[in-house]
Amino acid sequence: MNILLKLSLCATVILGMVSCSDDFVDVDNPLAISTSSYPKTVSDLEQLLTGVYATQHAGGIFGRAMGPYSTYLWDHTCDLSWQGSPNWIQMGQNNALPSDNFLVQIWPDLWRGVQRCNTLLDGIEQVSKTASQTDLANIQLIKGQTLFLRAWYYSYLVNFWGESFIVNGAGGEKMGVPIVTDVAVDLTQTQVTRATVKENWDFIISDLKAAETLLAGKTWTAATEKHKVNEWAVKGFLGKAYVYTQDWANAKTYLSGVISSSGKSLVPFDTYKTMFNGQNEFNSESLFELNLNVDMTYAGATDLSMGSMIGTLISPSYVGATGTPIASAWSNVFPHAKNIERFGFSQGHYFPTGTTSASISNVDKSYVNNSIAARSAKTVDPRLWVACLQPYVDSMVVAGAKKPISHYLDITELGMEAWSFRKYINLAGTELEINRANGSNILWLRLADIYLLYAETLTHSGDNATALEYINKVKRRAYNYPVDAPSPVDYKSLTDLTKAPDNVLKNDPLKYERWAEFFGEFNWWFDVCRWKIGDKEAAYYQKIRGGTIQWNDTDYAQPIPINEINANVNMKQNPGY
After folding, report:
1. Residues 69, 306 contacting (CB under 8 angstroms)
2. How far apart are CA 281 and CA 288, in angstroms?
3. Domain range spanning residue 376?
4. Number of domains observed in the structure of the chain
5. What are 67-80's pLDDT values in tens digits?
6. Where are the beta strands (DSSP E) in 440-571?
7. 521: CB partners within 8 A, 6+ apart
8. d(CA 161, CA 557)
9. Per the database record, which ranges form the SusD-like N-terminal domain (predicted)?
């Protein structure tokens, strides 16, 4: 794998916002740093760690591709306004190809994260040889974070490209991704074979268990350190890993431990509804989040930027001076119309039947009034309006002025629900006003996730009553009721009715709550894969604007990019491609 070749350490140090000193330069190659003289200090290791964190929002990961170029398409969180990229349409049809432009971005950036972790771990070994006892304590904290982050990158690699999830004890023998722990120094070391799915998860869990020991009892309180991995982030990730591998005994131990001992609590609804938009960051619910900031120097889609370009791709459309839609940025993708219905919205359509002009002047006034009444009465799941902006009811800010949300740009099918995304966009202006570098932190692991994973775990030990209570805790917060007391919206059983009209979620509160609670948060695809409900989901969504969804069971695993197949003679392609 050419992506595993040792990168210049200088590029990593740049991410720590320092320049390469002449003392570090390899005289035989002035463009590279001499590994005999760098890293030498704890400060050097911290610089490298900055690069490891920064890679999480590289262009192929949460800088742009995660969601709009990947999971949003496969699980049909989104539909496409932009119809000019055939490969984008094919991904939305569950028909990705090994030559797909977006997968070619995601694969190397995830591996670059692994490589940077391995480079740092190698540096830790060097620096530790001559470190003082005080420095060794700090080095252990750096190592713990690095192991967590390597597990983080590997979790995406195996979840995207592993041939199968582990289901009922089967699938572990299928092809995963290569396990690489050393920094390659020549091409022969890049010709590696795929490990099994089970070996991948064993490796991830091993890294997390080591991180758990190294970070035991550590909390980060300084404003500049709140983004760092702590003990509870590790334990929460371990709990999730055990659920994903169906190790229910260990999952119960870790998830219950986070619930009882982390001190975390669900935030109130008023905090929840804005915490995906750059507000209320590092709150009582958050276990691990990617720290992003608006960057007026570097636009998103690069790990040199402090922000993300995801908001640019999902940016809302608003009503312009002529009453018709205007894109607030790129405005490429919007929530699939079937998702609006899935939240329980059934208020009709903003344009009356027979409308020929898509203008705000033709909006049905009763639709607006009925929508406002439904929102107030909570007859529709309130999370719809946390996740989405409603045309001709909600508004956004453009150059300091409020503008009504329009139906989504370029949607000519006037009967289609064409709302806008709300999570991970700039509520105070357009994405262009912040240099396409959105600063909203990505809440990667939060207590609501732990609650629902714990509920799922309990169903496998027969404790359905407690499982139901944790599902209801999440639902109560969504409806602005006290979390720990019975409420009028509580489910009465694990097969009670939900807001969803479809056979997948209609009588399954656990699945529905995971779908509704995390809509737009890049999670649902992994649930679809591990529950093996891809065919049922495809049947519900049926089509995207570019054509009919074409589901095959091999679609749970994405194709290995053709560049990698060509570069590594030992790399085998996934079945079906």
Report:
1. no
2. 11
3. 315-423
4. 1
5. 999 999 999 999 99
6. 442-446, 543-544, 547-548
7. 276, 423, 443
8. 5
9. 24-242
Q: Is 381 domain-assigned?
A: yes
- What secondary structure letter does DSSP report for 189? G
Contacts of residue 541, Cβ cutoff 8 Å, sequence gap at least 6: 76, 336, 338, 549
Mean pLDDT of 157-186: 95
Q: pLDDT tens digits, residue range 373-415?
A: 999 999 999 999 999 999 999 999 999 999 999 999 999 888 8
* Residue pLDDT, tens place only, 446-499: 999 999 999 999 999 999 999 999 999 999 999 999 999 999 999 999 999 999
With beta carbons less than 8 A apart as the criterion, state whether 308 and 300 touch: yes
Instruction: Report the half-sphere exposure of 437 (CA within 13 A, side-chain side).
Output: 19
Q: How many helices (H) and strands (E) does the chain have?
A: 20, 14
pLDDT tens, 174-205? 999 999 999 988 888 889 999 999 999 999 99
Please check whether residue 535 lies inside any domain of the structure.
Answer: no
Q: Which residues pair with 334 in a beta bridge?
A: 79
Q: How many residues does the chain have?
A: 577
User: 50 lies in a domain?
Assistant: no
Q: How far apart are the C-alpha atoms of 46 and 50, rounded to whole Å?
A: 6
Distances (CA, A) of 161 to 156, 270, 306: 8, 38, 28
Burial classification of residue 63, based on how many CB atoms lie within 10 Å of its CB (0-12 exposed, 13-18 middle, 19 or more buried)? buried
Q: Is residue 350 part of a domain?
A: yes
Nearest-angstrom CA–CA distance, 331 and 457: 39
160 Cβ neighbours under 8 A, 6+ residues apart = 70, 106, 110, 557, 558
